[in-house]
Design goal:
single chain, alpha+beta, 3-stranded antiparallel sheet, 29% helix
Length: 107
């Protein structure tokens, strides 16, 4: 094994921003709702609220499961929106390729 040490000075830039991010989470409760929403014994008002919630997560559209909903059922992962103030740190250097290297941390 060869260990190589190198040093290079780089500028780290920071931006503070209000963002809406999506976090991938295992949500068996939401997966259950997607799979069984049609057969659930709930009132019309509750059904409307449930459909609106699943639509806000892009899991249903017009009372039909979306491709994102199908992927969520298969994987068990749901993209949950999260908003807040975040610090974005980025470095633009050839070491990282053409795209900047970005780190996002909550403030």
């Amino acid at each position: 094994m060869v260990l190589i040490k190198a040093r290079k000075k780089m500028d780290i830039n920071q931006i503070t921003a209000i963002l809406i991010l999506k976090r991938k989470e295992k949500r068996p409760d939401i997966i259950y709702l997607i799979k069984h929403w049609e057969s659930m014994q709930i009132s019309d008002g509750e059904r409307v609220n449930l459909c609106q919630y699943l639509e806000s997560l892009n899991l249903m559209r017009n009372e039909r499961i979306t491709p994102d909903g199908e992927r969520a059922i298969k994987s068990g992962d749901v993209m949950i929106p999260e908003s807040g103030v975040y610090n974005l740190f980025y470095v633009q250097d050839a070491v990282f390729g053409k795209e900047p290297c970005v780190f996002i941390l909550p403030q």
